[in-house]
Structures are given as C-alpha cells and as structure tokens.
Amino acid sequence: MADAPDMMQVNNVSKAFGEDWEREMVIENLSLKIRRNQLTAIVGPSGCGKSTVVNLLAGFEKPDSGQILLDGRPVTGPSKDTLVVFQETALMPWLTTYQNVTFGPKLRGDIPRDQLKEAADSIIETVGLKEFRDKYPLQLSGGMQRRAELARALINQPLVMVMDEPFRGLDAMTRQLMQEFYMRLCEQEARTNVFVTSELEEAIILADSLVVLSNRPATVREVVQIDLPRPRNLEMLSSSQAYEYKRHAMEMLHEEALKSFKGVGSSSDFLESYSRRP
Amino acid sequence: MGKASKRQETLGARAKALVSDLTFRRGVLSILIFLTLWEIGFRFNEWFGVMVPFVGKVDAPSIVATRWSDVVLLPGYWESWYLSMGRVFLGFLIAQVIGIPFGLAMAVNKYFRGMFFPPFEILRPIPPLAWVPASIIFWPTTELSIMFVTFLGAFYTIVINVLGGARAVDIQYLRAAQSMGATQWDLFRKIILPGTLPSIFIGAAVGMGITWEVVLAAEMISGGGQQSGGGLGFFIWSSYMGGVMDQVIVGMISIGLAGYISSSLIRYIGYRSMPWRRMF
Predict the structure, then answer these.
(1) How far apart are the CA of A237 and the nearest CA of chain B, in angstroms?
(2) Is the ipTM reported for this complex over the cut 0.85?
(3) Are B76 and B165 in the same domain?
(4) Chain centroid to CA B223: how far?
(5) Fewest beta carbons within 10 Å, which of A105, A129, B187, B244?
C-alpha cells in the first residue's frame, strides 16, 4: 500500500452544514487524488467551500458520505500526518519561535531531547529565523510569522502538508518573497503538498497539478497539469505557457463565479450571500 | 557587531529609564497639582470670604496631613491596615483558588456548565453586601462572615472572566495543536490554560478592586464588634461617628493607597508571568 501512487484519495465526498430546511450542501461528490511528492494546488471561486475541503483533508471534519484515504488508510481524525498551515497565523502567542517549533515533537515525545534541539535549530535556520529564535510571534513581521509556521509544520514530518491560503493578508512584496521561498522549499524537500488559494497566479506558479473547484456545492471542475519546468521562478508567470494555463483556468473560475450571482434577486438572498463571505 | 548591539541595548535601557522617569514625574506632578487645588479651594473662604462648593467643605491636605502624622503613631491605625489587608487577601485568595478551576470547568465541559451556570447566574446579581446578614448567621465568627462577603465580591468576577476567556481561546490554536497530536489533556494544559491567563489576570485585577469595596462596607456594618477588630472601614465609620472629619479623610486616602498597592502587585505578577505580552 505504501507504494500506492497517490498519497491521498478523496472518493465521492459530500458534506452539508445546517439543520433541516436550512441544510445546505457545501461539497457534493468531490473526488480527487493528491499525488505523492507533488504540489497540488486547489483554487475555486470565493466562498465555494475551499476551507471545508481543508477541514476534511485534515480530519477536523468528517464527510457525510464518501471516503478520504491517506496512504491507503481512511482519515479518522486530525493527526500529524495531515498537518495544516492556517490562513491566519496559528502560532501560539505565548510561545517563542523555538517553543512553537518544538511544540509538536515535545507533545508526542517522538524526537529525543538532544536531537530535537538540533533539528529545531536547523529548521529555524532554513526558514531564516535564526535571529528570531527566542522572540514571541507578535514580535515577528507577517512574513516571518508564516515562515515560523512553516518551520513548525516541517519539523513534524507530515505525510501531507495542507496549506490553507497561507500567504493571504501579506503585502504584495512579502507575498512574492514567500512564494519564492516556498517554491525553493518544495523543490528541495520532495514532499506532498496541498496548497489551497484564491490567487490563480500563485497556484499556477507553485503547482504540479491544479485542481479547479466549481461553485457551491463544490465539486472538481477540472484538473490541469502544470508542466512549467523546474526549478521555477516568478518570471515564468509571463511565459506564454503560463498565460495559457491562466486564461483557461480564469475562464472556468469566471463561469463558476457568475453562478453565484444567478437568482440573487430579493434582499434576503443578498443578505444571505453577504453574511457568508469568508 | 556584538559591541554595537550591546551599545544599542544600553541606549535602549537608558531611553526606557528616561521615559519611565518622565512618566513618574508626570504622576508626581499631577498629584501635587491636585493637592494644591484642593488646598486653595479650602482656603478660599478664609482668604476671600467665598465658599467654594464641595472642596471648601473638605478639610485641606495640610490639615489631613497633620492629623495623619498623629494617627500613624496610634497602633490601632496600623492594626486596621493589617486587618483589612488580611481580610482582602484571604477572601481574594480563596476566590481565586475556587473560582479559576470552577470557571475553567464550566468553559471546557458542557455538562458541568449546564449544571452550574444557571444557579451561578441567579446568585451573581445579588450584591455581596446583601449577603452580610445571612453571612453573620451562617458563620460562627464575624471575622469569617466578613471574609465570606469579600470572597463573594471577587468570586463572581473571577469566574465570569475565566469562563469568558477560556471560551474565547481561538479554535485555530486548538486545531493546530490537535493536528500535531495533542490529547484532550494537552489541549487543556498547553492551549486553554495559557490562552486564558490574560483573562485570569483581568479578573484578578477587577476582583481585587471589588474585594476592597466590599470589605470596607462589610466592616462598617459588622466591624468593631467584640469579636473582631476594626479594619480601615470601621476606622472611617468610627471617625465619622466621633465627628472627626479630617480623620475620615485619612481613612479614605489610606484605602486608596491600600487598593493601589494591591492592584500594582497583581499587575506586577501578571507582567512577570506573561512575557509575551510585554513587547511594546
């Protein structure tokens, strides 16, 4: 089973929220494969249920029907094997960078003490936070916080790293730097990544395969293989190949996004869709 | 490089010292201005024959200071300090010891919350002072009755703050910890507890203030009996009964100082135990 080509398999998963007549399908018959040692980017129109996909992959929520397999075994709950890096920083504000990074291994006690210090320090150096090892999260800039969070995820050696719009809210400059940094990181450490984002360009430049989700209820609209050469850089975005990917995906996203405007007539519909904004 | 950063550190330390020094001076200055205005307000009548409302009727700081210098020689005055402080701190401490676990238990367990929250909410609006008569009947000594009332004053505030704080801990932290393999107990110990700490200290600071308000009123009502000594509350009450107005003010300022000392102490402990909150 360990040699199965796909690290994760999502088979016909559906998920609804709410009770009785308020019940609404968020995800319907979603099937997708997460390839081993590849970066799978997931994009979809705003509010289509991307975060729910993340919660399902990570085991925070259980599907109503269908099945999610990790390395051939069903996902039963949150575990370190599907580690999530969240949208907003989830570093514990009461721990320093070092304490945050060592949080997981210390909990589980699976890395011996003397090795842990070495491992943590080397990972902190990899993400360029050596000088900020003993600072608290609020003393770090937005970009540094994201890097600290990456370090905290990496040290746990997860089978799949799930990134839920990790660079959202960063300024354009920092965002580019983080994208480049993350690109290098993925190319150096062959690792299975799921990268959920609402930025199409970011998805294209990072991904090996691009999953485009439909409007709510979310299902897979198309999977696009991104064959840009590796190692990559941000300049490749202006290549005609990247442009073609972008145009194609944009068309689909536009179509899907338009669907959410259909039938919005009464003020109650408007309020409803307004209150559901992420 | 080490030298440069060291120089920066001492510079930073000096800058900090200067700022705090300025703050300190500003504080002293504001108190001096306040006292001067008070003194002038009182003296206005004898200098210009005009009675200033309110301030004109309150004994001037100089009179109060003279009285104070007499009062500090009385052992009873210091005994009052000692007694009130003791009651406040014991009641407060017991409220913390019972209130924090109680609030945390209500926050993390919905069955516990379902059981205890409704009666708690019914008892909470009852002013601690309304408990004084019942408390005198409940407890064998007046001392215990007063302490029970001070305990109640702090207890509700502490519980409400702990409960609210623990419930407000961001779910992202819990999820992050969970996905790194945290057990229920880990979540409680390593996320809920440190996440609630700021609220615990807010509850402590507010609760401490209420405890002082309550202990003084409780002493005025039941203090001075045969079983228990006066305390600062009774000091004010008996000064008023004896018609010694300047001594009433001595008592009032003493309470102000006592409250300031206690809340400073809590702030200091909070500052020491939450290093991540003192960066700016």
Answers:
(1) 33
(2) no
(3) yes
(4) 21
(5) B244
Helix (H, G, I), strand (E, B) or coil at A194: strand
CA atoms lying within 13 Å on the CB side of residue A113? 0
Residue A177 φ then ψ, to 5°: -60, -40
User: B6 and B108, same structural domain?
Assistant: no
Q: B23 — alpha (psi -120 to 50), left (phi > 0) or beta?
A: alpha
Taking contacts as CB-CB distances below 8 angstroms, the residues of chain A near B8 are none
- What one-character DSSP code corresponds to residue A198? S
Q: Do B176 and A90 touch (CB under 8 A)?
A: yes
> What distances in angstroms separate CA B194 from CA A246, B170, B197, one per listed residue?
45, 12, 5
- Specify whether B173 is located in the same domain as B200: yes
CB neighbour list of residue B50: distance below 8 Å, 6 or more residues apart: B44
Among the candidates B58, B88, B103, a domain finishes at B58
Domain co-membership, B137 together with B155: yes
Q: How far is A89 from chain B (nearest CA, A)?
A: 8
Q: Which of B98, B140, B137, B139 is nearest to B120 (CA)?
A: B98
Does a structural domain hold residue B63?
A: no
The pTM of the full predicted model, rounded to 2 decimals, is 0.76
| Same-domain status, B35 and B113 | no
Domain count of the fold of chain B: 2
| CATH number of the domain enclosing B147 | 1.10.3720.10
Give the CA angle between residues B138, B141, B145 to the nearest 5°. Answer: 55
Residue of B173, B190, B194 lying closest to A90 (CB–CB): B173
User: What mean pLDDT comes out for the span B252-258?
Assistant: 90
Q: Are A103 and B177 in contact (CB under 8 A)?
A: yes
Share of chain A above pLDDT 90, in %: 12
The Cα–Cα gap between A55 and A78 comes to 9
Q: Hey, what amino acid is at B5?
A: S
Q: Let me know whether B52 and B80 are in one domain.
A: no
Alpha carbons within 13 A on the beta-carbon side of A28? 10
Quote the domain boundaries for residue B242: 68-277
Where is A206: in which H helix or E strand?
A: helix A200-206
**What would the pLDDT profile of B173-216 be if each residue is shown by its tens digit?**
998 898 888 888 999 999 999 999 999 999 999 999 889 988 87
Of B172, B190, B274, the CB nearest to A88: B172
Minimal Cβ distance to B279: which of A78, A92, A138: A138
